[in-house]
Amino acid sequence: MRVNVCMGGPSAEYEVSLNSGLQALSNLDQNKYDLRAVVVTKDKKFYYMDVKETLPDAQTIANPHGSFNGPFAPANCAQVWDDCDVAFLALHGEFGEDGIIQGYLETLSIPYYGSGVYSSAVAMNKITSKFLYALHGLDVPPYSIFGVNNPKVTVDSVIEKHGFPCFVKCPQSGSSRLMGRAKNRSELEALLVELQREAADILIETEVKGIEFSCGVIEMTDGTLKPLPPVEIRPVSSEFFDYDAKYTKGASTELVPAPQSEELLKKVELAAKEAHQILGCSGVSRTDMIYSDSKLYILETNTLPGMTATSLLPKAFKAIGGTYPELLDILISAALKSNR
Predict the structure, then answer these.
(1) Does 327 reside within a domain?
(2) What tens digit of pLDDT does each residue of 71-110 get?
């Protein structure tokens, strides 16, 4: 079976995506799969390399010019997808997780792992997904939408509603990129100016203090949805679970199984499954949430969770006795069974 492992892309999560892709390539069983590494550069050009036993290293993947075949424009890259049975998407953020690459692959009739066009686009947009969570009865942190489409929302009204500190987020970015925590008016104004270069509308949330969880859901080979054990996240030195806390070894304590009551953990698992279904996800998702004052606040759902060595989904799957290669087999099986 030919599996194209796609990584890179134009988003702020380029490096994370390359790490996820390399990790997937390293753990896919070459006795089962004929592997092809596909790197999408920041200018949306495609490069590919057929992997025969020896994997490309991180430096080669980061600089595919010369070692890989390419570049190919998206509209003219039949060679990249030649004989491809399934695409394993190790892409994150813009172009990879927002429905664009999903629609592209559907036009080519190539199965792919993860959610479809609609669910990818909705989950990637923190504002739209928040509306849907709330509509279906899930709790979300108090929020405002600041930008050209919401002229009545001002800096003063934001401060009055949310106070400090508050979170300021570009609605379509992950890995804690393009976001910040404002502790005063000047920091708030600076973040709004910075992020409005990236998006017309900016999400502002009241900071909720509590126990932070991330809970994965995977579609098993029999089609059932299985919540994985919730991971409790405790940043060691950061004020919140930011990019460095997520991807720097030792910067966070990630406890799985989480040392909380069985009742609370079941509540987290149920909320992760509900979020997955509310957004219409398929294959896999991972939902982040905070438990505070007897409420479970949903933050966001990731339709293509990170698959690096420090990522939460593989850790949670390992906690139930699974291995990384087994997880990849399950995700590929779900992709092949999808009715897209």
Answers:
(1) no
(2) 999 999 999 999 999 999 999 988 999 999 999 999 999 9
* Per-residue three-class SS string for 288-299: EEEEECCEEEEE
Question: How many domains does the chain contain in total?
Answer: 3
The predicted model scores a pTM of: 0.92
Answer whether 162's CB lies under 8 Å from 174's CB: no
User: What is the C-alpha separation between 340 and 112, in angstroms, rounded?
Assistant: 9
Q: Specify the CATH number for the domain of residue 304.
A: 3.30.470.20
| Nearest CA-CA partner of 61 in 92, 80, 45, 37 | 37
Query: Are residue 162 and residue 243 in the same domain, yes or no?
Result: no
Q: pLDDT, tens digit, for every residue of 118-141?
A: 999 999 999 999 999 999 999 999
Nearest to 19 by CA among 227, 249, 256: 249
Output the CA–CA distances (angstroms, integers) from residue 273 to 160, 207, 269, 277, in the order listed: 34, 24, 6, 6
CA 223 – CA 337 distance, rounded (Å): 9
Of 246, 218, 213, give the one whose Cα is nearest residue 230: 213
Q: Is 296 a member of any domain?
A: yes
Strand 2-8 and strand 86-89: pairing? parallel
pLDDT for residue 178: 83
199 and 213, same structural domain?
no
β partners of residue 49: 37
